[in-house]
Amino acid sequence: LKLQFLYLIGTRVQPGAVVKMATLKPDETQPQKKSLGAVLLGGAVLLVCAYAEGVVFQRSRIIYPEPFFDQFIFRTFAVMKMFLAALGMSMLVQAGFSAHNPAAFDASRFYKHNHRGYLRVLAGCFLVGSGMALAGSGPTMLPSAVGAWVNNTWIVAVGGLAGVLVFALLDTVVPLTPRECPVDPGGIEMAERGGVEPPVKKTGFLAMRVLEDIPMLSGYSYTKLAAGLGAAMLLAALAFEIAFPFYDEVDKYDKGPYRMKDGWPPSLAGLMVGAAQVPLRIVTGDGQGGSTAFHNVVATLTCGLIPGTRKYVLDGVDKWWQTIYTWGGTLLGSLSAAHMYNEFDLGSSSLDLVSLPRGFAGGFLMIFGARLAGGCTCGHGISGFSELSIPSIFGTGAVFGGAIGTALVVKCVTDWC
């Protein structure tokens, strides 16, 4: 009964878990209820991290459509610097977390224990990238753009909600998300009688989920792999900064409204995103993301009546964290920074790169794609990649591929017209 309950609430039961769970005492299977003080303290920590993240997003100008879009036509490298810094810092701090408490960190590796399949991840991430190029923003940065009053970001958010709604409706007809079979009751009975469930053998590359599954890397722990790769990513971010200095790149916008020389290097935003990974994992047991908040809103507004959305309804404290983090903390941080530096005009006097139809289409594609892939730019690109998830690593390439391809097509069409 305990295993059937875990399945019904969406917990994946791994092979061999039947035997382990059947031998536990009743109180050992129950989740530990956090005290009110622990919940409030954890919430305060998350809000501080989110607020700081929103501030650096606004100060780095990464939330404004033109500098964001120009990354994908190689006019600037702001997004790449932020991404590499965030990824490198995530890996380094998580390597420390893993060394200190390997069991807790491993439990937080969402993409190690949840696999959408390579085709879903690649197709979904490509759509995420295409939507980002059209919208001039990403799912996790969008709330900060709204907070800074960037033109037409509201329509991007509306498009994202529409993308989730269409995805949820289609998923009732077409299997857009993996369909799992319930645990065989006979297996539970066998375990209770002392039997052993035969393990499921992994075969081939497609069965591998994290880098440690690759035979030539199996002798290395996550801590060692992440520490080495994290240092390499930070060195790559430094190399980009040396080759394309931020204060040289901003000269390209001297005639624009962004006052780039008053901003901060985007790598600072990346370092902040990366440093927040450990507090997030400790408090929530998960890495950072942005697209699930859209699913939460749609599921809650529809009261979970669409099949498959019930688990996203905001009916518990543990389900609110991403929505509060992105649409509460980061939005407030960006709003405060724009007010403090008197820069609301940067959004209102922007070059109107994103029209209403384009913003809606971009929001629709990037959130639809994120739900298909099981993660967005931050989910797969930062959290999943830093967890050393193989599908997330390929998915990150698909995000950049979709963004670059779409941006180049948009630029060619715009120049031709």
Characterize this entry briefly.
This protein has 417 residues and is mostly helical. It has helices spanning 2-8, 17-22, 36-59, 65-71, 78-100, 102-107, 110-113, 118-135, 142-147, 153-171, 185-192, 222-243, 246-249, 266-275, 277-284, 292-301, 317-340, 345-348, 356-373, 379-386, 390-416.
N-to-C SSE string, H for helix and E for strand: HHHHHHHHHHHHHHHHHHHHH
Strand fraction equals under 5%
> Which structural class is indicated by helix and strand composition?
mainly alpha
Question: Percent helix among the residues?
Answer: 55-70%
Shape, principal axes of CA atoms: globular
Instruction: Find the count of extended strands (DSSP E, 2+ residues).
Output: 0
Euclidean distance between termini CA atoms? 64 Å
Mean pLDDT: 82
Task: Give the low-pLDDT segments.
Answer: 1-31, 181-202
Figure out the total of helices.
21
Q: Major sheet, described briefly?
A: none
Rg, please? 22 Å
Describe the protein in words:
By secondary structure, the chain is mainly alpha-helical. The chain is built from 21 helices and no strands. Helix 10 crosses helix 19 (356-373). It is globular, with a radius of gyration of 22 Å. The chain starts with a helix and ends with a helix.
Write the layout of secondary structure elements.
Layout: H1 2-8, H2 17-22, H3 36-59, H4 65-71, H5 78-100, H6 102-107, H7 110-113, H8 118-135, H9 142-147, H10 153-171, H11 185-192, H12 222-243, H13 246-249, H14 266-275, H15 277-284, H16 292-301, H17 317-340, H18 345-348, H19 356-373, H20 379-386, H21 390-416
